[in-house]
Write a structure and sequence with these properties.
Length: about 300
């Protein structure tokens, strides 16, 4: 951990209550300055960590690498680096992972990833066969904490409930520390999945993915691609607000807060916020949830 912030320093600064993490994606070069302003505002809330996505098929590899390395050097919440198996040999994937570990990265999110144009997944001839193989490799290389994906609503490659849960079990058996879900809008969808997981004997931490509705039209289109169900009540609430940004923002805060409160009431204590590189909505949700002190909120507002 030569040029990175020491763990002791980080643990003094970390922690929103309960366990809340934020996800960002590497920005396009022209958006870089705005991105770091957003990151600095989000960091002020002291999330448990900030995860950095890995572009589909490694498409934002260099930008992601810069973001992860800068985050690990700077004070504040540590990064969790996402990594996928698509389009790379084991040697190439290992080189990225070990480079990050040497730079001080301790946390990873290990994913199979998607093929270009969403064709059926084909492992690279010399690559990792899926997320479980990648988890095992990351752990072998010294990663301290590895998260994996989980899907309360059937993923496009879902076969049946038993094989889905066996597959998740395989990722834990390979060394995953927790699973983060694809976002859902109905708390009950998450709770039923958690129940199924527990009934199948998988007693491992499950973090719920929260997608704040920063722009309903965009969220709807993104959801169609990743298979997340947009309930009719959500459509009815947001469709009339397309030209009313303040009302849309207020509805987005209320929707997220009601979702989180319902789940907290059911004992859920891990939330992963897909921030879409926007700070305001995430900050307002944290304020309403009481997840950040006034001092931190004031710092984030600056
Ligand atoms: C928290 C999170 C973060 C993400 N970050 C990124 C990112 O940074 N970059 C990116 O490109 N993508 C990202 N994704 C998307 C992810 O890459 C895609 O959803 C991909 O299609 C699945 O990856 P996975 O590792 O979750 O897959 P897996 O869990 O391996 O497979 C997904 C589902 O397919 C079925 N399945 C697959 N293989 C089997 C099998 N052998 N037997 C039985 N069932 C099987 C299961 O139902 C399983 O739940 C993320 C997803 C999540 C939930």
């Amino acid at each position: 951990m030569s040029n990175s912030v020491s763990q002791a320093n980080r643990s003094q600064t970390a922690h929103l209550m309960p366990h809340v993490s934020f996800e960002v994606f590497p920005p396009a070069p022209k958006a870089e300055e705005r991105f770091w302003t957003t990151v600095s505002r989000l960091r002020a809330l002291r999330p448990a960590y900030m995860s950095v996505t890995y572009g589909a098929g490694g498409s934002t590899k260099d930008r992601g690498d810069r973001v992860v390395r800068r985050m690990v050097r700077e004070p504040g919440p540590e990064p969790a680096a996402h990594l996928t198996c698509v389009g790379a040999s084991r040697t190439e994937t290992d080189a990225i992972a070990t480079g990050w570990i040497e730079a001080g990265v301790r946390r990873f999110v290990a994913l199979r990833g998607d093929m270009p144009d969403m064709q059926a997944f084909e492992p690279h001839p010399e690559g990792y066969g899926g997320a479980a193989d990648l988890v095992a490799a990351l752990k072998r290389h010294g990663a301290e904490h590895v998260s994996v994906g989980a899907y309360p609503e059937p993923h496009p490659d879902f076969r049946c409930e038993d094989s889905d849960l066996d597959h998740l079990r395989g990722k834990f058996a390979a060394g995953a520390d927790n699973a983060i879900t694809q976002y859902v809008f109905e708390p009950e969808t998450f709770l039923r999945y958690r129940d199924r997981m527990r009934s199948a004997g998988i007693e491992r931490p499950l973090i719920v993915g929260l997608m704040p509705i920063f722009d309903f039209a965009k969220v709807r289109s993104f959801s169609a691609k990743c298979g997340a169900v947009v309930p009719a009540w959500l459509e009815a609430r947001f469709a009339p607000l397309a030209d009313r940004p303040d009302a849309h923002h207020e509805a987005a805060v209320e929707t997220a807060v009601s979702f989180c409160r319902r789940l907290q009431g059911e004992g859920v204590d891990g939330f992963h916020v897909y921030t879409i590189n926007r700070a305001d909505l995430t900050i307002d949700i944290c304020r309403e949830m009481g997840w950040a002190s006034e001092e931190r909120l004031a710092e984030a507002a600056a």
